[in-house]
Amino acid sequence: MPHTATVRDLRNRFPHIKRLLEHEGEVIVTEQGIPRYRLTRYSGAHRKSSAPRKDYLARMRRHQPRPISAALAKAVHDANRGRR
Fold first, then answer.
1. HSE-CB of 75 using CA atoms within 13 angstroms
2. Is residue 17 within 8 Å of 5, Cβ to Cβ?
3. Partner of 11 at 20 to 30 A CA spacing, among 44, 58, 75, 81?
4. pTM of the prediction?
5. What are the extents of the domains in the chain?
6. Secondary structure string (H, E, C) spanning 22-74
7. Residue 43: its pLDDT value, please?
């Protein structure tokens, strides 16, 4: 037979009720002496397989298929820098 607890016990003694729930798997919650609710352990939904990892290097290569030369990189840097 599952253990019982009152609504007041849930409010005031939740760590104790949590331990009961972990050991027994089910706790009946009473309200004014009448069983009203049943607490059970959450088993969790089936986890979906994680999404494949993003390949950031492939994404970058799609936007810039060939690396730029050092001279062109310096020219772009100088153009962005302006007269500083």
1. 5
2. yes
3. 44
4. 0.50
5. 3-40
6. HHHCEEEEEECCEEEEEEECCCCCCCCCCCCCCCHHHHHHHHCCCCCCHHHHH
7. 79
Residue 9 structure tokens: 């016990």
Collect contacts of 27-34 with beta carbons under 8 A, ≥24 apart. Answer: 27/2, 27/3, 28/2, 28/3, 28/4, 29/4, 29/5, 30/4, 30/5, 30/6, 31/6, 31/7
pLDDT tens-digit readout, 26-47: 999 999 999 999 999 887 776 7
> What is the spatial distance between Cα 71 and Cα 57, in angstroms, rounded to a whole number?
23
* Spans in the chain with pLDDT lower than 70: 46, 84
Domain 3-40 bears CATH identifier 3.90.190.20: no
Q: What is the pLDDT of residue 52?
A: 86
Question: Do residues 17 and 10 lie in contact, with contact meaning Cβ atoms separated by under 8 Å?
Answer: yes
